[in-house]
Every structure is written in C-alpha cells, then in structure tokens.
Amino acid sequence: MRPIVIVPACTRDFGEHPYHAAQYKYVDAVVLGADCAPMILPSLGSVLDLETMFGLIDGIMLTGSASNVHPSYYSQEVLDPSLPQDRARDETTLPLIREAVRRGVPLMAICRGFQEMNVALGGSLHQAVQHVAGKMDHREKPELGMDEQYGDAHKVEICPGGRLERVLGVREIPVNSLHGQGVNELAPGLRVEATAEDGLVEAFSVETAPGFTLAVQWHPEWRITHNPYSMKMFGAFGDACRAYRAARRSPT
Ligand SMILES: N[C@@H](CCC(=O)NCCCC(=O)O)C(=O)O
Description:
Its EC number is 3.5.1.94. It comes from Massilia horti. Keywords: Hydrolase. One of its GO terms (cellular component) is cytosol. With about 250 residues, this protein is an alpha/beta fold. The protein has a single domain, classed as Rossmann fold (3-Layer(aba) Sandwich). The chain is built from seven helices and 13 strands. The strands form three sheets. The protein has a nine-stranded mixed beta sheet with strand order 4-1-5-6-13-12-11-8-9, with helices on both faces. A two-stranded antiparallel ribbon has the order 2-3. Strand 2 (about 10-15) and strand 3 (about 15-20) form a beta hairpin. The protein is globular and about 50 Å long. The protein binds ligand LF53FM6H. The site of ligand LF53FM6H has 13 residues, from loops.
C-alpha cells in the first residue's frame, strides 16, 4: 500500500462555475517522483475536518499557483489588485501547514506552497521581488513557450549541512523561476536551505518540525523524470511519507 499524499486544490473558474482544481504535473510528481498515492484536497477552509483528514494521510504536497497568498496574513495591504488571489486556498492551507508541522506529517512545498509555509509559520513576503533593490526579476516571461518558461533561469547555492544538501549531494544547482513574490522575513524556526544569486531565499526546511519538511521556490515537478535533482527531492519526500505511514500503522 502506497502512502496517501494530499494535494490541496486551487479555486479556478471554468465557465460560470468555480472548481477545486490541481494541475496534472503536481499530481503526476507525487506518483512518478515520490511513488505515493495522490489525493486532491478540496479547499474548504474552516469547513475542512482536519481531524478526520489527518487520520487518513501520510504526507502533504503544496503546489504552486498563479494566485498570491493574501498579504493581510502578514499585515500588509494588497499592492497590485490586478494579481490573482485565492482566499479559499489560503484559508485551507495556512492552518493545514501549522497542524502538519505540529504532528510531524511530511511536507513538500513548491513555489506558492513555499510562500504559504513561510507565511503560515509567521514570516512575510515581498509582493513584487522585482521592485526590491538588488533583487533580480524572478518572473517567467509569458511570451516564451512552456519549455523556456520552465527552463533553467538561475542557479541556487545550497547551504552546507542542511537537508537539501544531504538529499542532493551538491552545493549548487540550476533552477527555473516563475514567481513575482518571495520571502521577505523568514518565519521563526525555518532553516535556509538554498539562496539565489541575489540572496533571495529559494528553499527552507522547518528546523523545529519533528517530521520531514522541504519547501522550494522553484518547480521540481516540471518534467520531473528528466531532472535527477527533482527525482531525489521527491524520492526523499516519498521515503518520509513511507516512514510516517509505517509508524502511524504500528504505533509503539
Ligand atoms: N503567485 C506566486 C507563486 C508563483 C507560482 O506558484 N507560480 C507557478 C504558477 C504556475 C505553476 O503552477 O506551475 C508568485 O507570483 O510569487
């Protein structure tokens, strides 16, 4: 039996109706990279029965999304109202993250998911990294094709002695970059695992968490089987989910 990994949905409008939706590449990465059984979690916010859900799952994978974490969660006003938001997703993932960390449920987070983790645990974001002095523009170029948008955009330096270095075995990798927001104040208890050439935090783990946590600003799910680094990251996450499932099913 494979571990069950939930993938919280985004709110997307198709025609006149809102949907709970998750992109194929994230769900595929849970299967192809982590060898786990994915289940899409509807973004029901406070209606969600966390107790029932945590009794069934062995890991959580927080996806990227074009929408932004609402800045009121880190005491700011929305600077650019033209950018998409997803309050239902915020109201689902932020408490989910705090409870998962407390319980030691393995957590893997990508892009928006990385930003959600930082905010959920008390950190803040730059709402427009490109407007911050000394920072690069980390956004994708929409005029390019998908392979170029998700192609290598910059390098990240991997911090020595952390989880990411242990998983990857190297100190620098090339990554893609499709985000306009980024870590400003790092939440208490987070350990920086990688930084971009401009110093922006690109990966962290939760030093104080009893379970596996790895959050990255880039997109390892993109064509995951073609990227050995991504396969190692998702493989480590899957191994943590297998260990968590084994412990959950045979408590000492
Ligand atoms: N909206 C946030 C997060 C960006 C993000 O998750 N981009 C990926 C969107 C497409 C995909 O899921 O691959 C920001 O702009 O920083």
